[in-house]
Structure formats: C-alpha cells, structure tokens
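Hi R.,

Here's the chain you asked about this morning:
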Amino acid sequence: MKRLLAIYFVISGFLIGIGIPAGFIYVLNTYSLTPRQFFLKAADRLSITNPLILSLMEPETRYANHPFDGRVKAGHPRILNLPLAGWAGTAAPPEVMRKVQYFTENKIPFTNPCGSGQLTSLAACWIVYGDKTAAEKGIEGLRSFRHITPDVQAVYGNGWELALVYDLLATYPNFPEEVKASVQHELRLALVDYLRLLDDTSPSLWHGRASLAANAWLCAITLDNPDEPDRKLIGRAQGHFLDVMSAWGITEAWPEGYNYWIQNRGFVLALAASAFVQGLEGSQLREEVTNIVEQAGLWPLYAMRPDKRVENLGDEGSRVDLKEETRRVIDIFAQTTRSAPLEAFSSYLGRLFDLSGYYGAYRWGFLLFNEPSPPIAERTNQNWELKYFDRWLPKSKIFGRNAMNLVYIRSAWSPDATFISYRAGHQFTHHGHYDAGHFTVFKGAPLAINSSRYDSGMFSPNRLNYSIRTIAKNSLLILRPHEKVKPNRFFVADVADGGQRITLPTGSAIESLKDWRDNLYAGAHYEGGELSAYEHVDGVYTYVASDLTGAYNSSRYDDNGENGKVSSVRRELLYLYPEDRLIVRDEVTTTDPGYQVKWLLHTANKPEAEGLSILKGTAINGILGGPAKSALIANPPGFLRLDWLVPGDGEFRLVGGPNHKRYVESDGDETRLDGENFSEQVKDAPWFDRSDWRIELNAPKGRTEHAYLVALTPSLDRPRPEPPPAVRSESGMTAVIFPESVVIFVAKDKQLRATLTVGETAKHIYIIGEPLPRKVVIDGETFHNSETENASVFHLAFTGGSRDRAHSVSIGE
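And here is the predicted structure, written out as tokens:
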C-alpha cells in the first residue's frame, strides 16, 4: 500500500501540471487495469525514466519462495517428448525417420520443414533429418534473435519460439558457446519481462495470464546451468505456471470458448505442459499435469457435433471448425500423454482436413508433434465416422465438474447421432457468457440453438444487451420490472432482460486461483450454477441435476441490494438412449408472485404450433401467443418435437422474424410489449448457428412456486409419429408415460405410495428423486434399490407380465 501511495503522489504531480489524458481513463476502465498498470502507462506517456520512480512501480514479487517441484533435466530437448535417446547428431535420428517412413508408406500428407528459412522450420529440419546446414543456419538466426516485450493487452511476446528453437538446436554437437551465452541472456531477459507482468494483478487467469505464464515457463525450463538468481527466476515461473495449471484443471474446458482457446492459448499451453512433463525429473505433479492435458484434449472431441464443429460456448470465432489450429495442439497433447484416444482424434482430424489440419505457417511442426496411429475413421455417405469410439469412450462426459459443469451427450459417434450440450457452472472470464442452465440439441442440423453472436465488437449493443446474456440461451428468465443491469459504464441503457447476474462482461483481472475462489461467493460473486448430480449409464440414460440459484439475483445475493427475485432455481436433464429423447424439468421459486418466469428455446426457423394469435408485429415477424402445448421445430434434415407437459395453464409464445429475432423486453415488464431488437451490425457468419426464432413458455403469474416439464424428441428426415406423452400427477409424484418408457419424478422429502398402469409397449421405468423410493413392484415382481442408494436415478427394465396387456407399477412401501 505504501508503494502504491508513493507511486500515486509522484505521478499525480506530473498529471496535475499537464492534465490527465482522457485515453488513460478509457484504458483503465476498458481493460480493468490496476492503479500500478495505469501509472506505468502514465510514466511511459510522460517519458518518466527516473530509476527511483520506476522501481516504486515494480509489482511485489510473487512465488519468491515457491517449493520447486522436480529437477530440471540436464540435457535437451526438454520441451517435446521426442525419440532421440542415444542420438549423437551425426546422422538422421533413426526413430524420427521411422516416423517419416510410416507417413510416406501410408500416404499420409506432410510438409518437409527443410524448405523454409524460418527458425522453427530450420530447427525442425535438424531434428527430423539431421540436416547440419539447417542447424547452423538456425543457430546463426538465434545469434540475432530478440524477444518481443509482452504486455497485458494481448501481446504475449515470442518467448515460446526462442525457447523451442534453442531447445531443439541445443542438441547440435557443434553449437558455439558464445551463441549459447547470447541465447541464454535473451531467455533471461524475456523471463524477467514475463515475471514482471505476472507479478502484477492485471493479467487475468483464464485469459492473458495463462499465455504469459506458459511463455515464462518455457523460457525458464530452457535456461542452462542456472546460478542462484536464475534458480529463483525459474522457481517463480513454475509457481505462476502451476497456478494456471490448477485453474485449467478445475475447468478442463476453457471458459472463454473454443475459438479463444485454440487461437490464443492452446498451442503455448500445450508446449508448456509438455515441457513440465518432459523437462522435469522427479516431479510429484507429473501425473496431475498429464491428466489435465488429456482432459483438455478430450474436450473438443466431446464438444464436436456431428457436423464436425465444436458447439459454441463463449465469445466464439471461426476456428470452431477444427481446421488449421486444432490438430497441432491435439498432437502435442497426445505426445505428452501417450493417450490412444487423442492419437485417434488426431488421425480423425487428418482424415477430415489432410494438410489443412495444420495452418500453412505451422506445418514445420507436424513431424515433431504427430505420433503415427492407425487410421480409425471410416467414410460413409461423404462423412467420416468415429464408430471406433462407440466401444472405447462413453457417450457422455462432464468437464470441469463443480466448476464449469459442462456436459456433452451423444447417442453415437456417427453423423446421424443426436448431440446435446449442457452448461451449469460459475463465471471465470469476460469472454464467458451468463448461461447457467443452457442446453443445445443437434440432430442432422442445429435444433435447440445458442443464438449468441460475437462479430460486432466487445462493446457492441448486441453483445452487451443480448449475446452474453441468458436471453440468448436456452435457459430460464425471471423478469423483475426495472431490474438494474448496469455493470459498468459501457452499459449505456438499463436493459433488464430477466436473466442472470452479469459480473465481468468487458474485462477481468483475476490474478490467481485463490483470488477467484475468494470472490466466488463473496466480493465479485462469480457463482453461477452448481451440480447436484451427474449420472451416466452408457446406452441407457444420462442424468444431470443442477442448482442455478446463485446465477440470478437471489435471496442469497442480489447486486441490486434487494431481496432477490428468486430463492431457488433448479434444472434437471434426463436423456433416454433407447428412445432418443430428452426431458427437461425445472423448479423455480420467485420472491414475488408478480415476476414472470420464462422457459426459452431458440430455433433456426419458425416452429409450428397451433392456436397462436399475433400479439405484436405480424405472423412472420413479431410475437405470437396462445395456449399451445406442443410444437414442431424443423431444420432439415433435423426435426425436434416439443411437448410442454407441466404446467398445464401457461402461455406459449413465439418470438422472431427480421425485427424480433433478438428482441429483449428491456424494462423487464411485459405489461406493454415495447422492447428492443438488438440486431444492429450483427452478421450471420458461418461459425454461428442461424437462430431467427425462439419459443417462450410463460409460467402463470400469481404464484411463487413454478414447475416445468418439457419433453424434446429429435428425429431425422421427418417427425416421429408418436402420440403425445401422458402425464399423471399426484402428491409427491409426477409421472410421464411414453410408448416405451415411464419416467417418474419423486418430490423431495415426500412419502410416496402410488400405482400406475402403463401400456404393453413399455420397456423401461426411470424413477428420479431425493431420496429414491426403497421398493418398486412391477407386475408383481419386487425390486429394491439398495444397490443404488446413493444414486438419483433408479432404472429398471420391465421383465414380468405379458406383452399383450398393460403393466402395473407400484412405488413405495
């Protein structure tokens, strides 16, 4: 604090004399800079060079006493796991050349790195082919290499390149000592620059801090023969990097979204993680880091829809198509972990994209990073299928359990599969969205859609007032009239969409995992959704239960300084594999019976629903409402049938068309439909799903307890010809009866004794509750759930009774 006060008074003397440039204030607000960063910019602007003043501006040293994990490997290479054992550098490395021979014999396309003069290509040429001329050219290039000074505003420097090229060329037997000394000096300068930024509080953890820490660690681990000051620098770098790894480990997926991950973070973090596993001996954290890397590699595999595109998550961009950037990162992950699924994923990407799996300027790395594996994809109907994984990986997986809570479900690893995503986690970065409870459905085409866009700027009205918000997702709105939603000055108008709290929309400065945890349920309140249950039985069901209360202004915490608009919000998803059906159940308790609760689902085209009348605009460009209880969503070749089962007295609405597809009731009050459409400057880029309409299921007002039960049935080519499900409700139970199954939701802490009669085609019964009933009798046969007493789902197949008559199901004592 004393240091900051000294900085303040010194700089203030200059600023008072000449005036404070408006740009400083703009940068401070825009990028959430700390006072120190502001003053550093001021000093630069004012050409202040006094060493005393500049020393006062230096951040406090962090991780000065970090207990170093492991020992740095003596030789090189330390970054990549390359088969160079016993190689003397007098000829091409035998193991690497065997890899080249494999690619050649199997007609796997690759680029010879020896055709380029860039340093990375020269280093790769030396390692792969033992080309001494390339090594000497590369060493000569290192002689004059100067690192780019990083900053906190997306300039992360080129420390990784200096470290990697040196690490590879250091295996050359005739590397001149004076060049080594020069490179070591440059690595040290780069490391000091990275640590100066990392010691400050401005770089944000799941953002620039990750890239800076990865670069710092790469520079640190390639320092040779370190003296005591160097060892301290290396230790500090490891401390910063391990904090990033811990943060990465709790989210597993990257909260900014896939495009930001793969274009801005993936490669350098992959290299740094590889360096930790490969470059250290005796590490206690090696297995933990390896597991983090493997989960990060599995994320895009599970997030890949059947149209070979990663499902959008945060502020997304073009590389959700998996081209150019993804394969080299997966290759490094596979090399680091020796994971067969990741090697197979790389093979699949190779089948999809050939050379385009690597961007042209990166193809020097293919022979270094890729580990040959047998092709596992088969071409069927012009699509590459991953049937291989049907018998290897489960069809559902959760990433970042108790943090991101990101779930993926697929009916199969094939182009005609149903794909579902669900997110119910906390907030981590300003490129994330306020989307707890959001789910998507894909079959043949996007059916339940994320309608966000990120193509008109960080501060565009669309992004701030629509795309980052809950209203752009398939989640729940609770409209509180005139709710204040103005997180900072960039929110010019108060747009009360009814969604979740907005905590860090235009900038974040989360300095550590501890800082994030300290602000999870206090301070900035990053809390969002929390996981109550996740259960998966492959080929039978996937069940997810989540508590979304903390994401909203609630009785727990209200950024409006009031008593919240909800006291409880819960969402459950149950996917039934045998009949390819998704059931969504919600329970919402509002603090005021006048608040409007809405259930949202975004679609590409206008859904078909009966009994609707025009409330605003026209039938093809407006808002329609009525008593409909079902809808058909078509986006050929995909179809989705929606059956709204509970409540029985709500209002069905359609909102969409050119002037309403991003419509927001800005005052949070639907007494008058006088909202705004935030479509200005929005473009339908190919990496966004078209989303022209949305369904709103409005719960009846005049009560505080609200329940939703919605069945979603996807199909290909045509709707499935089924009768609507029957619903039976009584005290403590809601049962939904489909042609092949019955799903029973048991109310919490309710004593239940009920008997149901279901049709002769029924094959499965699913009972869901807390706690589950202890006994179920089906056609006279008794089943106890003692083996699944800690589970949330009790599943049984019908075994007794005749197939030509109805079945009797009794639940409870």
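One quick note: The longest strand covers residues 705-716.

Cheers,
M.
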